[in-house]
Design goal:
This protein is of the alpha/beta class. The chain has 14 helices and eleven strands. α6 (78-94) crosses α9 (159-168) and α7 (100-109) runs parallel beside α14. It is elongated and about 65 Å long.
Length: 309
């Protein structure tokens, strides 16, 4: 993919907030697309003080810099690997409750016909009270385990085992060998249910969520649909960002609200490449009324939601 960045010129913040209020008030349907930026805004940061406070012993032993890069560290043993991943899963999912920002977002949409598609694995939508039939968790969850070789399509709750791993991690940052999770079918080591390779397991629940998402999109295109996109970058843009752009560009009853610290541009596709286009270029590429249906925010998400509720 090839990207060309354009500059995006935005209206006054308060004007955009008022437009957003009207969009939501007049919407028949709301589709939320959530990426890592939403959880970061909610305080679930993978670096900085939160990382240093929770992983001092791992930082000292391995020289870790943040929770994301630490996930790719070549541990010498499975006992060491699971000592880290148990703590990682606890800090970023199992040990957490729903956060203020996610609960605020629920209050914004709870009286609307809404749906959520997310690439986040922290289960904040579930923990914050969103209807479990109204979200599609595309990339898995830290709270689930699977066979590392995907020998069968079943997931297992891992909370009890994760807590025991943390309790029994020794001074060398290893778990007892007897706690290593083994697949009940093929005896291979288990893994967290994260989409990181070709062995990611999509169980019955995953396929049900996907079908619910497809059904919602089909239904929502029959009315006024507002897409609320939070913190989606270009790590996996084909899951949410590009489809949201395409929906808004292809349907005049669809509006897109994009919350992101940077890259607020829309995308157009030409000869297999995706190009970013700024506000000053929109009418050269897209429908003339596109500016009325695209609303970008690079301001703090919590601040903006507080103005809406």
């Amino acid at each position: 993919m090839k990207f060309i960045e354009g500059k995006y010129l935005m209206e006054n913040y308060n004007i955009r907030v008022e437009k957003l209020k009207k969009l939501i008030d007049n919407a028949n349907y709301i589709l939320i697309g959530a990426g890592a930026g939403l959880s970061t805004a909610a305080g679930i940061e993978y670096s900085g003080k939160r990382f240093r406070d929770n992983f001092p012993e791992f930082i000292k032993k391995y020289g870790f810099q943040d929770m994301y890069s630490s996930m790719f560290y070549p541990f010498k043993s499975s006992e060491e690997k699971w000592a880290y991943f148990a703590k990682h899963a606890y800090v970023n999912n199992i040990g957490m409750e729903g956060t203020y920002l996610y609960k605020k977002l629920l209050n914004l949409v709870k009286n609307k016909d809404y749906f959520v598609i997310t690439t986040n694995t922290d289960d904040q939508f579930l923990k914050s009270g969103f209807d479990e039939n109204r979200f599609f968790r595309v990339q898995g969850s830290y709270a689930k385990m699977q066979c590392s070789k995907a020998c069968h399509e079943k997931l297992y709750d891992d909370e009890e085992l994760i807590l025991e791993m943390i309790e029994k991690t020794d001074e060398n940052l290893k778990i007892p060998t007897e706690l290593l999770p083994k697949c009940p079918v093929c005896s291979e080591e288990m893994d967290l249910n994260l989409r990181k390779d070709s062995f990611f397991v999509e169980d019955d629940s995953w396929h049900k969520q996907k079908q619910n998402y497809i059904n919602f999109r089909k239904k929502a295109l029959g009315g006024k649909l507002v897409l609320l996109e939070f913190g989606i970058g270009f790590n996996t843009p084909i899951i949410i960002r590009f489809p949201f752009d395409d929906l808004m560009k292809s349907h005049e009853n669809v509006s897109l609200v994009r919350f992101n610290r940077s890259h607020l541009e829309l995308t157009v596709q030409d000869n297999g490449n995706y190009y970013l286009i700024g506000e000053d270029e929109l009418e050269n590429y897209l429908n003339p009324n596109i500016k009325e249906r695209y609303l970008p925010f690079n301001e703090d998400i919590t601040k903006t939601l507080n103005k809406l509720i």
